[in-house]
Write the structure tokens for this entry.
Amino acid sequence: MKRRVPMLIVSITGFLLTIQYFSPHPASEMFYNNALDWLVIIGIFAMPLGIYSMVRIQFHKVIRRSTGWGYSVIALISLFTMLGLGYTDKCLENGTFFMKLFEYVYIPIQATMFSLLAFYIASAAYRAFRARNLLATIVLTSAVIVMLGRVPIGWAIHPLIPWLADWIMNNPNMAAQRAITIGLGLGAASTAMKIVLGIERSYMGME
């Protein structure tokens, strides 16, 4: 019963939300809006559970002195500090301690994380762009043309290079992006149908 009831709720809700996309009746639109409201409500109740889970995991790491427990201390201090400051009046105004922590701690950390991605991308590009075979040579040539076409030196070398770069981005690249998008859509639809039909049960911790 503990498994059948949640699966039944998921199946009925999934079927109703799927059918409402094909029905222009006002009742269908009202049902969809109510479902969105309930999604927000469930998310609000799920947030304390997520915070509790995080605190519990990080606290156990600190108690057991697990590897990297110092980072757990920083995470807990940061969590409770921002939560505490978030309940103060005018916390979102410029110049407050809350906004200073956000601007001078969180944003630089986020920028650092994204900047590190550039090194990983460069490393992956170096390995992928080796001209070991015909396909790798095509990828390498296309990448060089696109990079040169996006900087002023490309115009200085030859006016045809920016045109080739635009053609590569607007034709082969766009076709590949659309194919990937179609594949993602089909994969998402098939996964959703498996969940609605009860075939996929991993979200309930079931095989």
